[in-house]
Write a structure and sequence with these properties.
With 535 residues, this protein is α+β, with helices and mostly antiparallel strands. The chain has 25 helices and eleven strands. It has a five-stranded antiparallel sheet, with helices on one face. The chain has a four-stranded mixed sheet with strand order 3-1-2-4. Helix 3 runs parallel beside helix 7 and helix 5 packs across helix 6.
């Protein structure tokens, strides 16, 4: 089915010019060969009358086309969030990418989005030209091809790790999609991207432009001591694999529009999840063309869009970790929050045994739910809020699932202890991938927008929908580059009733002074406790 949301002539021009900015935005099915390709395929461009265009790989596969072995469609950036046509489809795609259809059926997925299964199927057919199940199978096949290329797992283990119920089903799906058996693909495929004797490397494609330096700087300012490290042009962190504590690294690929993720060989079985988390952390499935087109009309953002094309949202590696980091960042500076987070990890995180610099693992929710937290410099109320969120996270795995809408998600989050509107929007933006989340109560955003109030900033940001989160990243980055010590994460709410009722207006001068004093105290090293005489 030719999708009406695609302009065939524009798609053909992009394919003929091999424009990498359109990579993953559509796929070209060639009628004379039965093959479908990426817009960047090096093969000779077919005649216009011999091609059809599809919004996603799953639609091309459902139409009977096989994946090209030259351009490797399974290595293209993920299907972009089609927010201009359906926010529901976008949220469904995020849930599918997080493995929702491995845990429930179509009706269960639809129920989580607040609609029926038939309506969800119709939305997918209208917007993507493929059913949710076809999108899920295509996702599993992409993961399987990555594992075949980069890991030493057996075919049976690859099938299981990719979510297929049986090896036979896996073999049939691979042969139908790629025109060869898994064994033949592994034998005849390109040389795996090998990170050397100690690791496996995987290319993570994105659509250019991509403002890597700004994103890395943003993460560097918030890197958790002992857990994360940003050095030069790379990001490194500890994580828990099935084989034990390990370290991964992400850096720009030597060529092409991609990052390279390197993990230990022992973590091969975790590769599917690690790729998904890395893509989310660096926002690699964003559509910079659509974002720039929507935000470029704003005089306040046009300069930043020109200076920083392809700026992404710094996402979340681990949702619970980001929850904790956001709570620690309420009403203190970025530096103070990072100091607090380092203390938390030192006292309550597990030792990784991986050497200095990356010697800790972030604490599990179960650990923090019962931890004594005031000793790291947290006020009693903040410590109680953090323990409360940890208890919820420990018993409710659905806490980190997207909502049926941004408003529903924010309402669900502010019901948690210590979470107010600022924190809820900040988490919606970074943890849940909501591109329209906008923490308008943030002091850094208000300063970057000219010292306006929260209500004024909300009104100013209305034309930026549905990409307000990207507008926030531009404002934060402008502020960060203008003054290295600007407080871009400074929350103006603590989750309490008074803060929620404040409406995001300008805080009293005394409140700001108190917040500054708290930030300074939190950033100071803790002095050893002096012994008290009992005489």
């Amino acid at each position: 089915m030719l999708l009406v949301i695609l302009d065939p002539d524009a798609c053909y021009r992009a394919a003929r010019s091999r424009d990498a900015r359109f990579d993953g935005r559509f796929f070209t099915g060639v009628l004379t060969t039965g093959i479908y390709c990426r817009p960047v395929c090096p093969a000779r461009t077919p005649k216009r009358e011999n091609v059809r265009f599809f919004a996603c790989a799953a639609a091309a596969e459902e139409a009977g086309f096989r994946a090209c072995r030259r351009c490797r469609p399974e290595t293209a950036p993920g299907t972009p969030p089609w927010l201009g046509t359906s926010a529901t489809v976008s949220r469904a795609l995020r849930l599918i990418d997080d493995g929702a259809l491995e845990r429930t059926d179509l009706e269960g997925l639809a129920a989580r989005l607040g609609l029926g299964g038939r309506h969800l199927r119709r939305l997918f057919e209208d917007r993507l030209g493929a059913s949710p199940l076809a999108v899920e199978i295509s996702r599993r096949l992409r993961q399987a091809r990555t594992l075949l290329d980069t890991s030493g797992l057996s075919i049976a283990d690859v099938a299981l790790a990719s979510g297929f119920g049986s090896v036979r089903q896996f073999n049939d799906s691979v042969k139908r999609t790629f025109g060869a058996t898994p064994t033949a693909l592994r034998r005849a495929g390109r040389r795996p991207l090998d990170g050397g004797s100690a690791g496996l490397s995987v290319r993570l494609a994105y659509r250019p432009p991509f403002e890597w330096r700004c994103l890395l700087d943003f993460l560097a300012r918030r890197a958790i001591p002992g857990v994360e490290a940003v050095d030069g042009s790379s990001y490194r962190r500890t994580f828990r694999s099935n084989a034990g504590p390990a370290v991964l690294e992400v850096r720009p690929a030597a060529s092409g529009h991609a990052l390279t993720l390197t993990v230990p060989r022992e973590a091969a079985q975790d590769l599917k999840l690690l790729v998904r988390q890395a893509r989310r952390l660096f926002d690699l499935d964003a559509d910079p063309l659509a974002i720039a087109a929507a935000l470029g009309e704003s005089p306040r953002l046009a300069g930043s869009l020109s200076a920083r094309p392809g700026l992404r949202i710094a996402g979340s590696w681990d949702p619970f970790e980001s929850f904790v980091r956001a709570l620690l960042g309420q009403q203190v500076s970025v530096q103070a929050a990072t100091t607090l987070c380092g203390r938390l990890v030192t006292r309550h995180g597990e030792a990784s045994g991986l050497g200095p610099g990356l010697e800790r693992l972030f604490p599990r929710p179960e650990r923090l739910a019962a931890a004594e937290l005031t000793s790291i410099g947290l006020p009693g109320a903040r410590a109680a809020s953090l323990r409360g969120v940890a208890r919820v996270a420990a018993i409710d795995p659905r806490l980190f699932e997207p909502g049926a809408s941004l408003d529903e998600l924010v309402a669900r989050l502010v019901a948690l202890p210590g979470v107010g509107p600022w924190t809820a929007h900040y988490l919606a933006m970074r943890v849940y991938g909501e591109p329209d989340a906008f923490p308008s109560g943030d002091l850094g955003l208000r300063r970057a927008a000219g010292g306006v109030s929260g209500r004024q900033l909300d009104a100013l940001a209305e034309p930026w929908r549905p990409w307000r989160a990207y507008a926030a990243m531009h404002l934060w980055t402008q502020a960060m580059e203008a003054a290295h010590d600007v407080r871009t994460d400074d929350a103006l709410d603590t989750g309490g009733p008074a803060a929620r009722g404040a409406g995001g207006g300008r805080p009293a001068r005394g409140r700001l002074r108190r917040a500054e004093r708290r930030a300074a105290r939190a950033a100071r090293p803790l002095a050893p406790r002096r012994a008290v005489s009992r005489r």
